[in-house]
Write a structure and sequence with these properties.
With 632 residues, the protein is mainly alpha-helical. It is 69% helix and 1% strand.
């Protein structure tokens, strides 16, 4: 086929859409594609409804957020619409609150909502591309790649990333409406969807530029900037919200800490890394630590990106989908590529959730243009199948915090955030293991601070010392030898003091240091005749805690029950028994014991639950735990 003939028929041999932008004749055959995409997505991601909340950020956004845990109430809605202390995401907060009202703190329900949003986005992408290109089959392959690519697991399987799934859903709606013939109604609907996307997450501020791209191909309209002025104004507002929100989180890095040259070098390498992982999705993780980039690596990345750009530009007449797809990918990644550095990560899989569509378009239409139809379809089916299997495996790593961050350390190497997160989850049930992880987090952080002395000290630096102190106190509770117990309490106090030297406002450090002083005063030696004997109930609880730390849950429960039998009117043994039953996955029995404790003294029971589980002070902690155990 000659070049002129190919251009007349349109890219990849497909005719451009009719002037009215409709696909009426294709309608009967596009729904089976949408159904297949939805089924494939559910098969790959359906397992997440059995997963758990992840310690990393899920507490901040849901499980420990007092406003979200209220569900949809007048006060919580008012907070969602006005608060920017964690970033301005009002629609995301309302979405989480709706889930709490529907599912309580059952992670499976929250993740089912995320899966539904992802399925809808995948189908809407297919409908939008089909409408714009009049080519349902390649549109279906692009949507399938979006739906099941392993790099998109993070956005779907992580409750905290509701921001991604919700903002992208509204972005897809805007794209679908934009594909329609221009009218006042179309412009209004596009603007509304765009605003909703930015009120979920300010990732898609580049959407007006994307509309200019698709004007050229596949819509073949004359690009019109003036008709998009209102969209650029909305985008400017989104940029303001994003910067204000990240400043409130103290997440923006200054150029003194991270010079512009370093940011540009990291951005160039990040672009090439994203391309590599999209083509070969291996060693994926939720956290990629920010490391030094050599000048040669940055130069090589720049040459590669420049070569791709020049090639796509020279082929823009013959294969316009290449330049459009490439600029889609490059442009929509700009807000998160690291020029404005947020946090201490070099890149993140979730950032490719929407930008990757551009590369998928370039690849799918390119394959369709180069290969015979049957060969192209066979290659597409093989690629989708392989990626679906890889995504299914990647999704399984998000089962719980321990599985995810053990895998993360395995694929990223030294990773202070992953070490700290694992240390957190082991503090009460395996303190020795917790201390090992937290020490590594401290060592890695101190090494990074020596390399960049001007960098601010990350929160985990102080909190890792707090965590070690807590783990030492747990060991002290289980220690039988008074001298060993006193030594562990002293060591815990030293860790809390170290945390306060790093950060005078380190969370829980002052409170736990007061607890250390109280324990030392209680254990102070007195005259032999006056020295109190430890009560049998306390002895049984200490014994049970020690058994729990060894994961001997049945034996621990037996000890807790003896303590309850000795003092059935005391709150403490009922609370410990309830938590011990929960550790053994006997949730219904655990909830029943906690209800008994609540009946005896609700306020005291809540204090015990708060202290044992190290929760933020909240009078609703006990009730929240009971609801969670009851699956409400």
């Amino acid at each position: 086929m000659g070049r002129k003939s190919r251009e007349k028929r349109g890219a990849a041999g497909f005719s451009p859409p009719e002037p009215d932008g409709t696909l009426k004749r294709a309608a009967p055959r596009i729904w089976p594609y949408a159904f297949a995409i939805a089924i494939l997505t559910v098969v790959v991601f359906g397992q997440i409804v059995t997963h758990h909340f992840i310690t990393y950020d899920d507490g901040l956004f849901v499980t420990e957020n007092a406003h979200v845990r209220e569900g949809l109430t007048g006060d919580s809605i008012r907070w969602a619409l006005t608060s920017s202390e964690l970033g301005y995401y009002p629609l995301v907060w309302l979405s989480h609150m709706t889930d709490v009202s529907l599912w309580g703190l059952n992670a499976g329900g929250h993740l089912a909502t995320a899966l539904l949003l992802h399925v809808l986005s995948s189908c809407l992408l297919f409908f939008a591309l089909s409408r714009m290109t009049a080519a349902p089959l390649p549109s279906a392959f692009v949507a399938a790649l979006f739906a099941i690519h392993p790099m998109h697991v993070e956005s779907v399987a992580w409750v905290s990333e509701r921001k991604d799934t919700l903002s992208t859903l509204f972005g897809m709606i805007a794209l679908l409406f934009y594909a329609m013939p221009r009218s006042v109604r179309r412009d209004v609907m596009v603007a509304i969807a765009f605003v909703a996307s930015l009120l979920s997450k300010q990732m898609l501020v580049t959407l007006p530029f994307l509309f200019l791209l698709v004007d050229d191909w596949p819509l073949r309209r004359k690009p019109a900037i003036l008709e998009k002025i209102h969209l650029f104004a909305i985008a400017a507002g989104g940029v303001f919200l994003a910067v204000a929100g990240q400043r409130n989180l103290n997440a923006l890095q200054t150029t003194a800490v991270l010079p512009l040259g370093t940011r540009i070098a990291n951005s160039l390498v990040a672009y090439t890394s994203y391309i590599g992982k999209l083509l070969w999705p291996a060693r994926l993780a939720p956290i990629y630590p920010l490391t030094a980039v050599s000048p040669s690596a940055a130069a090589l990345a720049f040459v590669l990106l420049l070569a791709i750009t020049i090639t796509a530009w020279f082929l823009r007449k013959r294969a316009p989908y290449l330049i459009v797809g490439w600029l889609w990918f490059i442009g929509t990644l700009v807000p998160v590529i690291g020029i404005v550095q947020i946090g201490a990560a070099s890149m993140a899989d979730r950032y490719t959730y929407f930008p990757a569509i551009g590369l998928f378009i370039a690849i799918v239409w390119g394959v369709a243009d180069l290969l015979p139809a049957r060969v192209a379809v066979a290659a597409g089916c093989a690629a989708v199948t392989i990626l679906a299997v890889l995504a299914f495996i990647q999704t399984s790593y998000w089962k719980d915090t321990e599985t995810l961050f053990t895998h993360t350390i395995g694929v990223t190497g030294p990773n202070p955030i992953a070490e700290y997160t694992l240390g957190q989850i082991y503090e009460t049930n395996d303190p020795d293991r917790a201390i090992d992880h937290l020490r590594r987090a401290i060592d890695l952080t101190e090494a990074a601070l020596r390399a960049t002395p001007d960098a601010p000290k990350p929160d985990l630096y102080a909190q890792a010392h707090v965590g070690i102190g807590t783990a030492l106190l747990e060991k002290a509770k289980a220690a039988g030898d008074p001298a060993a117990k006193a030594k562990l309490v002293d060591d815990a106090g030293a860790e809390y003091q170290a945390a306060l030297r790093i950060d005078p406002n380190a969370g829980n450090a002052q409170r736990n240091l007061a607890l250390v002083q109280s324990m030392k005063a209680t254990a102070a030696p007195v005259a032999p005749r006056q020295q109190p004997r430890e009560s049998e109930v306390d002895r049984l609880i200490d014994s049970a805690v020690a058994l729990s730390q060894k994961r001997q849950f049945d034996a621990a429960i037996a000890e807790y029950r003896r303590a309850v039998a000795l003092d059935p009117t005391s709150v403490e043994p009922h609370v410990y028994l309830g938590i011990g039953l929960a550790q053994a996955a006997r949730n219904a029995e655990g909830a029943a014991e906690l209800r008994k404790a609540k009946k005896i003294d609700a306020a005291r029971a809540n204090r015990y639950v708060t202290g044992i589980l190290r929760l933020p002070q909240n009078e609703g902690n006990l009730d929240a735990l009971i609801r969670q155990l009851e699956g409400r």
